[in-house]
Design brief:
The chain is α/β, with parallel strands linked by helices. Helices cover 51% and strands 14% of the residues. It has 9 helices and 7 strands; from the N terminus they run E-H-E-H-H-E-E-H-H-E-E-H-H-H-E-H.
Amino acid sequence: MIRLGLTGSIGMGKSTVAAMFRESGVPVFDADAAVHALQGPGGRLLPAIEVAFPGTTGPAGVDRARLGATVFGDDSAIRRLEAIVHPAVAQERAAFLAAHADAPLVVFDIPLLFETGGERGVDRIAVVSAAADVQRARVLARPGMTTEKFAAILARQTPDATKRARADFVIPTDVPLAETRDAVARVIACLLPNEGE
């Protein structure tokens, strides 16, 4: 099995590319989706998060705005939250791998792959990338996004140029969708050269 790490900065189109891998029959583990499920209504992390950060959970799951305000700028609080979340995500990932043990290729969709040292757990890395002006326009079109929030998010992420330099593959998304889809197909063909024979 080849484990491909898929990453990219905010607004680069990673979700679109992950969907293209899925459409091509490649199993995709979405780290963000796993976190949302663990912290959503009835999520198994709710009791531990409520104990660590009282008042941040409810029937709808974690109140992300309240939890974010509680931990923002507090490194020790962030570490406490990560100590709750990361082991649970690792368990979800292990279950995903067990369920797809026969797959020749799997994708780990991890937004903060480089920032969290996640590159050590994959065999190859694909970075989703677009021109800075395209990225900016996409992100600022999101509800509730401001230039200040965007700048703060970018400041916490490895720069796009660094990600591209460290990647095995770069998948462009500031081109027509067909070209992005072709780039995904080339990555799959490169990693699984005998699949089409």
